[in-house]
Amino acid sequence: MPAIDVDRRIDLGAALAHPFPGLRPFEPNESFLFFGREAHTRELLRRLGEHRMLAVVGTSGSGKSSLVRAGLLPALYSGHLAGAGTGWRIAVMRPGSAPLDELAKSLGAVGGEPAAALRARLGSTSLGLVDAARMTVGASRENLLLVVDQFEELFRFRRERETADGGAEASLFVASLLEAVEQLETPVYVAITMRSDFLGDCAQFTGLPEALNQSQYLIPRLTREQRREAIEGPVRVAGAAIAPRLVQRLLNDAGDDPDQLPILQHALMSTFRIWKEEGGPQIDLRHYDKAGGLRDALNRHAQSAYSRLTEASDRALCERIFRCLTTTEAGRAVRRPSRLGRIYGVVGAASETERERVRMVLRLFMEADNSFLVASDPALGDDAVIDISHESLIRKWETLQDWVREEAESASWYQDVLNSVRLRRTAEGGLWGDPELSTALRRKKTDGWNEEWGEQYGAGEWAEAVSFLDASAAKRRRTRLVAMAIVLV
């Protein structure tokens, strides 16, 4: 997963046109629109200064990434970390399925060193990050902050890594982080964001639970006054006005559930857009109600974007793309970030014309007025990582919920095929007959099963799965022919 650039330039025009980011996180260059978290930012600075490691932990939707990107990072650049000065190089990354590769890319992006040389250092020893940090900052005497966003990807991509190396790369990555913050010669700081439901998984790595005990910051709920500031502040900056009765309605509708924060941001984005289109002295209840309110604004907006795909083939392609970007883990629908090259393979986009259709769908859902999808590379190269901007979209967009259920059922059938393949290897299982075989073959055709799709659920087993289904179908044909022959006799 490519490095994420920390862009500090402020695009006032774009920010004032879209003062609320919707589902995506606030970025460092949007800190002037980020309100209500000042006290939390000060606490992050204190803990990072004490331990040189910071773990920002919270539930999905609690604002972890925004707090780090638009709260902590601008504060560091402004010199608010005692004794550290204003000289910072900040590398932001997500672990994905190859954390050391992504670490090398993120360091190379801020230091100018070739990623390949950095990767060689990182892979040699747990002190590799210290060596790579010296290469990155050189003689500048600047501090290096490594932000590992969505740290839980170390656990979510576990199957892919264990297939490749038994989990060795993830272990070396964690050890490198811990070594880097413990040494004092090179000023390396580490900040991670992680969903709280993955805290127990951290026990897999030696030393990580102890480090988290010292550095963990569990994001508090915003008070009602802080939520009010998060609503009113961006409106003031944009030179607009919001009706007090709408502010009260928003506060009451959102309550104090942190999971409502991204939904609140999206409802505000949609409400602001409608006010801009219709005009009026201030943003008011009629704009909010037209957007759908907190309950339905996200569903209506996503469905409206989807309805812009007028061709049935483009709608079918959209469904396949979103099914590629979601999965079900332990009964819970979650995001599944995917490289664009893999998406091409899963949806069967072989020609450049077909790939341009994929990019057209992605651009629609990435538009600033939508912000339903994000890409690590806006140019949409093959290595760009595409992701749903927030899991709230999965929970609120009814059409996507249907797609997620269909994908889960399809994956379940494929897993049943793989289980039968594995049993047959040991002569403990036989071929399939109807009705299971007919259902699996129908799923294979209508859901577009192919090797890239199958790799998401069982690495290296696609050929055996196809052979098993073909053999089962051949046996069924023979059985039917025998039955017909008996009837004729």
Walk me through the structure.
By secondary structure, the protein is α/β, with parallel strands linked by helices. The protein is 57% helix and 9% strand. It is built from 23 helices and 10 strands. It has helices at residues 12-17, 38-51, 64-77, 99-111, 115-122, 128-137, 153-156, 158-165, 168-182, 208-215, 224-237, 244-254, 261-278, 285-291, 293-307, 312-324, 340-347, 352-366, 392-396, 398-425, 436-446, 451-455, 462-488; strands spanning 53-58, 88-93, 143-148, 188-195, 216-218, 326-329, 332-335, 338-339, 373-375, 385-388. Strands 2-3-4-1-5 form a 5-stranded parallel sheet, with helices on both faces. Strands 8-10-9 form a 3-stranded antiparallel sheet. Helix 5 runs antiparallel to helix 6 (128-137). The longest helix is centred in the C-terminal third of the chain and has 28 residues, at 398-425.
What oligomeric state do the depicted chains represent?
A: single chain
> What share of the residues does DSSP label as strand, in percent?
5-15%
Unreliable stretches covering 5 or more consecutive residues: 1-5
For the record, give the distance between the C-alpha atoms at the N and C termini, rounded to a whole number.
65 Å
**Which structural class do the helices and strands define?**
alpha/beta
